[in-house]
Amino acid sequence: MKADLHIHCSASFDATESVDTILRLAREQQLDLIAISDHNEIDGALELETKASAAGIETLRGIEIDCFFGRNIVHLLGYGCDLRDPGFARLKNHYIEELRRTGKQRLTLIEEHYGLKLDEAAIIARAHGRPYTNVEITQELLQTQIHPDLKPYQTGERSANPIANFYWDQLAVGCWGYAELRLPDWRQVVAYVHACGGALIVAHPMQNLKLDEAAAEALREGGVDGFEVYSSYHDARGRQFYHEFCRRWGLAETFGSDFHGATKPNIVLGKTGFDGDCTESVMLLKERIAHWR
Q: Which H or E element spans position 69?
């Protein structure tokens, strides 16, 4: 079995490809199981569910929920839950309002940091009717401005995945460009997704937790069902660390490319860092889902 359980479609604020395109790419990669897991958004996952059977591909319902873990932000992947529960619509609407609230704040921070002025009308146009976010601001910044500190993202060592790399380097929690979102606490997310019949997996833990065993242990004790061990962001050391942690505690291991289309151009759908048979791990994830149902 081949699986990719962390895919974003154009329903997500930061991704570009349609559900139909994702299904085509999944067939090309000969994937057996996929999940669209958009940021605080359910429409893509529900659309996939209606179309995938005709394409001969199994799916899991998925969602990626941004939440606070202490002073840090983690992304928790909910699988198999009832996405039609009204709480998910409230989550989506709250997140959209938070993106709208923080967009202007982040734009101001970037302009002040680099001593320049960006065309806000052009940024709004890039968002195609949605609230503009770090994605559209970064696109406008890197495509229209000249500044020595931007060169790594335009033509240098960070240019293969410029929008995501700029976010992690400059705009994430603890960075000068961080604009604080009002997000739920991770414990609320765990309780809610479990109540909706879903299992909780910590997304790309090397991006948020690094090799922090105490943090991983706190999440385990708090009820998460597993970790995304195999991710396009993880090196061999990170994969081994979280593989061993999951095996030690009987937690589910999952596989996710974090595909976003043109927004993350160097990430290929289906390329998760795992090339073997994922049947055993998928069965364990499904057992966790069945437990909460």
A: strand 62-69
Per residue of the chain (293 residues), give pLDDT as tens: 999 999 999 999 999 999 999 999 999 999 999 999 999 999 999 999 999 988 889 999 999 999 999 999 999 999 999 999 999 999 999 999 999 999 999 999 999 999 999 999 999 999 999 999 999 999 999 999 999 999 999 999 999 999 999 999 999 999 999 999 999 999 999 999 999 999 999 999 999 999 999 999 999 999 999 999 999 999 999 999 999 999 999 999 999 999 999 999 999 999 999 999 999 999 999 999 999 99
> Please, which residues bridge with residue 154 across strands?
none
Strand order in the sheet with 252-256: 62-69, 72-79, 199-202, 226-231, 252-256
- At 279, list the tokens: 């049947």
Tokens for 268, please give them. 């290929």
For residues 100 and 81, the answer to whether their CB atoms sit within 8 Å is no
Angstrom distance (rounded) from CA 161 to CA 267: 8
Distance CA 264, CA 77 (A): 19
**Please, what are the domains in the chain?**
3-92+182-292 (3.20.20.140), 102-171 (no CATH)
Looking at residue 169, the DSSP 8-state letter turns out to be I
Q: Report d(CA 286, CA 79) in Å as an integer.
A: 9
Which residues, in sequence order, are CB contacts of 192 under 8 Å at separation 6+? 87
DSSP 8-class letter at 132:
P
284 vs 276: CA distance, rounded Å: 16
8 A C-beta contact, residue 33 and residue 1: yes
